[in-house]
Amino acid sequence: MTYVPFPISEATAITFAGPPPSEADVVVIGGGVIGVCTALFLAEAGKRVVLLEKGRIAGEQSSRNWGWIRQQGRDPDEIAMLTEAKKIWRDLAARTNVDIGLTQGGTTYLAHSEDEMERYRTWLSIAQGQGVDSQMLNAAQISELIPNIQGAHVGGIHTPSDMRAEPWVAVPALAGIAARAGAKIVENCAVRSLDMVAGRVAGVVTEAGTIKASEVVLAGGAWSSLFLRNMGVALPQLSIRATVAATQPLPVVQMGGVADKNLAFRPRADGGYSLAAGRFIEMFVGPDAFRSLPNYMSQLLSDPFGVRFKPFAPKGYPDAWGTPRSWSPDQASPFEAMRVLNPEPNKKKVADLAVRFEAMFPHLGPVQIKSAWAGMIDTMPDIVPVMDRVAALPGLTVGTGFSGHGFGIGPAAGRILAALATGGEVGHDLNRFRLGRFSDGSAMRLGPAI
Question: Is the entire prediction scored with pTM above 0.70?
Answer without folding.
Answer: yes
